[in-house]
């Protein structure tokens, strides 16, 4: 019953999310989406679409709802709704700004955040190191099974 009611009420949130994106001109950060999730919960409760003010768990879920109800459908088909197109442009622009920002480039340059492909010449070496880290636990398991 819970999932069915949720399935019915969340598509009605589509126009509200579009308006919030346009008003807030949000960024990619989940803190911004947390605020929108809070107001979306208030909206759902006020419009009696949901029985409490806790329908959307957090900003990540709200972001996923926007992607599934607004962004992805707009990529599949052209919409004549100007507000929806504007919200999609703002959403895409926020990602573009994020990838061009200095905060993101600092993360990419840091040695701690390199991919395994950048640290090891061969995948076999990477796998061998992972196995060696787990070797003591595996040896204890083997001893336990043999005794």
From TrEMBL:
It holds the Pfam family DUP. It comes from the Eukaryota. This is LANO_0D00210g1_1. It comes from Lachancea nothofagi CBS 11611.
């Amino acid at each position: 019953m819970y999932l069915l009611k949720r399935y019915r009420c969340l598509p009605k949130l589509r126009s509200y999310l579009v308006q919030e994106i346009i008003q807030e001109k949000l960024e990619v950060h989940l803190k911004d989406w947390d605020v929108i999730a809070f107001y979306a919960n208030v909206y759902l409760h006020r419009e009696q679409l949901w029985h409490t003010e806790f329908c959307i768990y957090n900003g990540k879920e709200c972001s996923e709802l926007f992607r599934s109800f607004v962004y992805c459908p707009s990529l599949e088909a052209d919409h004549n709704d100007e507000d929806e197109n504007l919200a999609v442009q703002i959403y895409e622009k926020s990602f573009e700004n994020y990838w061009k920002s200095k905060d993101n480039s600092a993360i990419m340059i840091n040695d701690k955040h390199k991919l395994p492909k950048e640290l090891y010449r061969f995948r076999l070496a990477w796998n061998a190191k992972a196995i060696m880290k787990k070797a003591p636990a595996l040896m204890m398991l083997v001893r336990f099974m043999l005794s």
